[in-house]
Design goal:
Number of helices: 1
Largest sheet: 2 strands, antiparallel
CATH superfamily: Glycoprotein, Type 4 Pilin
Shape: elongated
Order of helices and strands: HEE
Helix content: 25-40%
Distance between the termini: 77 Å
Radius of gyration: 27 Å
Length: 139
């Protein structure tokens, strides 16, 4: 009759541990690319939402100031009164601070040459014009 606490019954064999590690590696190998893809898409979607919020803030600025910020004032005019800014009732951005894009870069601002709505955009993860995927321009 065998004793119940023999060394053979006390733990896992090396083969059992290796099989478990191989199964875990396969799962991680299949799931990790999907998770990273979702992360990249979520950053792009966050940038799109932030740009829309900044456009809404510019609309409020337009109502108060009767013009959009010029190139020198840029988006900073949403949080600080421009020189000679009578009518400014900001800050127009929650928290009184301009958000950075999801990759930590400042959003870019281009006023319209015709006086229409200005362009707000981000160059994406690589912070250079053009690109694909997470490096694509947004806005």
């Amino acid at each position: 009759m065998r004793r119940k606490d023999s060394k053979r019954d006390q733990g896992f064999s090396l083969m059992e541990l290796l099989v478990a590690l191989v199964i875990l590696a396969l799962i991680v190998g299949l799931v990790a690319p999907q998770v990273l893809g979702y992360l990249g898409r979520s950053r792009t979607q966050t940038a799109e939402i932030q740009i829309e919020n900044l456009k809404s803030s510019l609309s409020l600025y337009l109502v108060d100031m009767r013009r959009y910020p010029n190139a020198t004032e840029g988006l900073k005019a949403l949080v600080e009164s421009p020189v000679g800014g009578t009518g400014w009732k900001g800050p127009y951005v929650d928290g009184g601070k301009l958000p950075a894009d999801p990759w930590g870069h400042d959003y870019r601002y281009e006023p319209s040459a015709t006086g229409g709505q200005p362009r707000i955009y981000s160059f994406g993860a690589d912070d250079t014009a053009g690109g694909e995927g997470e490096n694509a321009d947004i806005g």
